[in-house]
Amino acid sequence: MVVQPDPANSDSQSTVVDVDRSSSVVNPSADLESASASVSPIPHPVIDTEGDDQNNLSIKIRKRDYGFLPIPKNRRHDPHKKVDEEFGFTWKMNLVFAFAATVSVMNLYYIQPMLVAIASDFSVSHSRISSIPTLVQGGYGTGIIFISPLGDLVRRRQLVLLLILLTTILSIGLALAPSVAVLEGISFIVGMLTVTPQICIPWTADLAPANKRATAMSITLSGLIFGLVLGRVLGGILSRFGSWRDTYWLAVGLQGCMTVILYFTLPDTPDKKIGLSYFGVLWSMAKFFTMYPTLVQACLVSFFSSAVFAGFWTSLTFVLNNSPYHYNSFEIGLFGLLGLIGAILAPQWGRLVDRTHPYLGQISGISINMISMVVALVGADKNISAVCIAIVGYDMGQQLAQVSSSYRIAGLDPKARARLNGCSLLAVFAGQTSGTAILTHIYNTHGWKPTGGTAVAFIGAALVVLFIRGPHEIGWIGWHGGGQILKKEKMTDLSPEAITEKLRVKKKETEKEKGGGQQV
Q1: 87-273: in CATH 1.20.1250.20
Q2: DSSP of 403-453
Q3: Count of C-beta atoms within a 10 Å radius of residue 489
Q4: Whether residue 71 has pLDDT greater than 70
């Protein structure tokens, strides 16, 4: 552990810096990937302008959200205290983050099983109504780029409450939509505002203790997966046995309850004081791809694995609808419940990542994906057991790989976690969009076997990306530092500059050894 003075306190208290050896670079300007430090957020003074004397610059506690809504007393931040000591990070708070992710992300998936019912209600063609899921996902991608980075710029309590409140109000509009055009417009905006999970995941990384960070992040991430599955299932059930509008009324109720819960539980942690404008924040996301090899590696792996995940589920719908199964849409939708197994196991994967190097989780997860896709390639069009094994296996592998990638990325720069998470999600979004288009086209043109073969090739590409750059590599390609992944390494009592120098010396020694071996 690196102990540094805490500027928020004038006494001898200190800030603990946990050094994550998941990746590394040799730039001493916080671009260190092997010396990436997880720093407990340092509280910053808040000037209270609510008093009568506007010239009074004494440090006071912020008491209101948005200038008028009182913050519960136990959720207010005292600038004289460190955030981790003031609020801590309990299982209760972790579950609240997970529940918020579940309720929020369901907005993206209600629509998928309801398309036929909506088309019938408005008397429009299936091709016209199919534009709505595209608009929802397009809005979501827009939100990832332009809204989720705000998690590094503003106070997150106010941001999350505002996002949930707006999607609650807009869900009323969806339930009352008089036409397809209105439904399309509101759906895009709802998708754009449904980025609460992408605020909560890096927020979890900031608040959780370093030795439990992966476990905490996996719990929040499992909430997102639950939402993905439950949104489809509830949308299918309510539209089949009631009205599709009932689904959106349910969404209004769930999000309304979530808003109240979040109001009383979210801590008013300070913003990160990164010193950037909004456009500077967006530009910094682009620069990250030139600064962090670990980020690029994780994004490429996520692109290929997400492409298969989305394309496999879309193609599987056609496989199960045709011979020898002939399942209807409701029966096909129930297969989504198998995905809950992966969500339930996600916290166990987090504990594994907390105890080992996250590179092991990435390799293991993608390897499980490969085995699952081979099973699907061989038997998905012949035996339902092969379908079930592939669904459960791929979902488990995907969760393990995703938790590991999120953990590695979160350790690159504590003040940029929301932006780094946004970069990763852009890769996931691009992969899902590309995978759906490519694998669906191949299935419609050539059938299941070429589709499954392409999926296996995509997973193979993800494994290649992992194998060409080792867990301790400083640069873009290679295995400098060896392949130790069974036990997490720790460097203690070193300043960031000392860590940088140690890594530089270590790399030079490795290069000399290789050069000497060649001369002999």
Answers
A1: yes
A2: HHHHHHHHTT-GGGHHHHHHHHHHHHHHHHHHHHHHHHHHHHHH-HHHHHH
A3: 16
A4: yes
